[in-house]
Amino acid sequence: MKEISSYQLCILTIFYQIGTTIVFGFGASAGKDAWISAIISTIIGCVLIMMYTNIMSINHGLSLVEWWTERFGKILGIPIGWMYMLIMLYEVGRGVGDLRFLISATILPKTSSIVVVVLFMSGIFYAVAAGIEVIGRLGEFIFWTLILLFMMVIVLLFISKVVHLNRLLPIAGNGFKPILKAVWPVGITQSYGESIELAMIWPFVKEKQKITKISLWATISFGLIIIVIDVMGVAVLGGAVFKNSMYPVFNLVQQISIGEFITNLEAIEVLFLLTNIFFKMTIHTFGASLGVCSVDEIKKKKWRNK
Amino acid sequence: MMKKRMFIAIIIVIQLVVTGCDFDGVEVGNIAIVSGMAIDQTEDNQVLISVLIPVTRASGFGGLSSSSSSSSKESTVVLSEKGVGVTDAYRKIESKLSRRIFFSQTAAVFIGQKLAETGVRNIVDFISRNDQSHLGLYIFITKGQAVKILNTNSLLERSIVEKFVKQQQSGIDFKTTFLDFINMVTEDGMNPIVPIAATEPADLSGNNNYINAGILGAAVFRGYKMIGSLTRREARGAVVLCNKCEPGMIAHAIDDSNEILGMKVMKCDTKIIPRIDEKNKLVIDVVASVRGYIQENTTNIDLSTTDGVIAAKQRMKDTYAETLNITLRKLQRDLKCDAIGFGAAVYRKYPKQWNEYYSERWEKEFQNVKINLIVNMDIPNVGLQGKRFKENCND
Predict the structure, then answer these.
(1) Contact between B24 and A105 using a beta-carbon 8 Å cutoff
(2) pLDDT tens for residues B15-65?
(3) Collapsing DSSP states into helix, strand and coil, what is residue A191?
(4) Is the pTM here over 0.90, yes or no?
(5) Quick check: B232 and B259 in contact, CB under 8 A?
(6) How many whole angstroms separate alpha carbon A49 and alpha carbon A38?
(7) Helices marked H in A160-302 — which ranges?
(8) Is the Cβ–Cβ distance between A253 and A268 less than 8 Å?
(9) Alpha-carbon distance A28 to B212, whole Å?
(10) Number of A:B CB contacts under 8 A?
(11) Nearest CA in chain A to B134
(12) Which residues pair with B82 in a beta bridge?
């Protein structure tokens, strides 16, 4: 019986939802009002998560791809299940792409991206092969380090005196149209819509009755993190730079400069990115391989929770 | 057992690959670190890029061992080349060197007045797009050619760029970082204002002929184009209005008989508060709260009495208001350009009215908008001396 605790689920959910938003910002197309779109998206996101967990409790103990065979029979269910697996694999590809661009655009411009990607993917394959318990424990172990670093970045930004909160004003100066544009579709699908893939790991959770509550908590925490990122991004960089920049959070961390001594902390940002992408892609890959196992009824003990 | 061995083998392989990865290895000996950059426009509408590179040759650079060798060697070198765009010139400069140019440490960019007047949009794009330079670098406009500034030697620092950066950090004069500049261009109801750097004699008495470069005012932009400049006094007013005033500035009050009251500003905080009055007219209140200590008194105000301090306060207040008024008059009447961000303040407080009415007409409206100046002067300390010493010892 492979199991993860509900605390580990919470951490994995946060990691999964953060994904690449830690570099690209959330709802950056709304410029100044990105944080409003983050709030709206989080509220809608919570509703979505509740929907997903409700579907899960109807299909008790089954993973995402098994729902379909259970409800619609094999003829309809297997193709639908496969579509989910394909989307997960596609998302892995997207993640690799983001990683390649960011690494080559920032710290290693001349390194052939195949080196980075191969190293990174071998880590992911190892984690997936080791199983969900290992991924959960790893998350538990890394999470607070990252949160600590994140808070440190915020504090350092304040000490550097680059935060001008009046840049956030006026609130919704251009009306709600651009804000809603950032919410739908990208804001909702980006992190919250994708969260249905977490249904692949829900069957592993020890206390199943807690999943709804834990997922909601994780979603709200994630919402807070992106709201902080958006507020800081606009307050430090200003609406236009935040909107136009390819990697706004990267630029944000670059602004830290304390007495010509603590500067150039971009590496922290790369650390955020690598860790978050690692967890997101690991869960994608794990979900996809688990899906293949269960749809095609491959019985390997390690992978199954029963 | 087999699994464990495999695992160890994988770890060893990964470590070898990671440590041996020298695709991006950068040897300090192979790069030319650009500490400052000057950008001008040439006669034939090309850009002239000049870079200031500290010489990192072993003989001139390494600490104690170099003290025996001649110390008069140049510690910096300036190279320049012209091209169609920044990249073109950059490539040509690189071909003159044995090393690759490295922009990450660039701390200041000087832009010639001529280029500033035709527009700096292309320069802004280069600086924000390339992956080496960062957004925190300082920008300056220079009177005449920008290269001239780079060719000046600093009296105290290793290079002139270091001098300007230190000066900006100590906060005596007007400062604009690149990030500020972009925000000032893109924000509604705001135009950029950038310090002007120029050369001046270091010693006014004429005993030596060192040339120094300093900040001599501010350039006002409309969008990406420079449209005019502020003198030193006007620039000081602009610093206060922009709420960028740092401690340590000295304000003088010269009265009719040419007597002076000097003050060291300890704290200066400016708030721009727009309001729409009953007649639906826009009024902008500027509240400047200043706290300072008296440093010099050649007037006959008796600073040991309360009345004297009140009189001194009044005088400093009037001077402050006068300086601010001069700046405002210049911006509203002559340049007709809102470089302080009054429009942005209106937009922040009244977004609806701004979008409906002011955003289109702000350039016109700004010239006629009523700006109320309120200066709150606080002098808690009149220095270490109360009364002035007696004029005549026979009294």
Answers:
(1) no
(2) 776 655 566 667 777 788 888 888 888 888 888 888 888 876 644 444 554
(3) helix
(4) no
(5) no
(6) 16
(7) 177-182, 188-191, 211-237, 239-244, 248-254, 266-295
(8) yes
(9) 45
(10) 72
(11) A254
(12) B48
The dihedral sign for the CA sequence A61, A67, A73, A78? negative
Greatest Cα pair distance in chain B: 107
**H helix or E strand, kind and range, residue B217:** strand B211-222
Interaxial angle between packed helices A132-159 and A113-130, expressed in degrees from 0 to 180 and rounded to the nearest 10: 130
CA distance A49 to chain B (A): 35
User: Helices A113-130 and B2-19: crossing angle, nearest 10°?
Assistant: 150
| DSSP symbols for A85-150 | HHHHHHHHHHHHHHHHHHHHHTT-SSS-HHHHHHHHHHHHHHHHHH-HHHHHHHHHHHHHHHHHHH
Nearest to A115 among B21, B188, B347 (CB): B21
Answer for the pair B225, B266: CB distance below 8 angstroms, yes or no: no
Give counts: helices (H), strands (E), chain A: 12, 2
CA distances from residue B216 to A68, B160, B197, B212, B234 in whole angstroms, order as listed:
74, 15, 6, 12, 10
Contact A109 B134 (CB under 8 A): no
Q: How far apart are CA A223 and CA A39, in angstroms?
A: 7
Query: At residue A240, does pLDDT exceed 90?
Result: no
The answer to whether the beta carbons of residues B120 and B111 sit under 8 Å apart is: yes
- What digits encode the pLDDT tens for the residues A189-209? 888 888 888 888 888 888 888
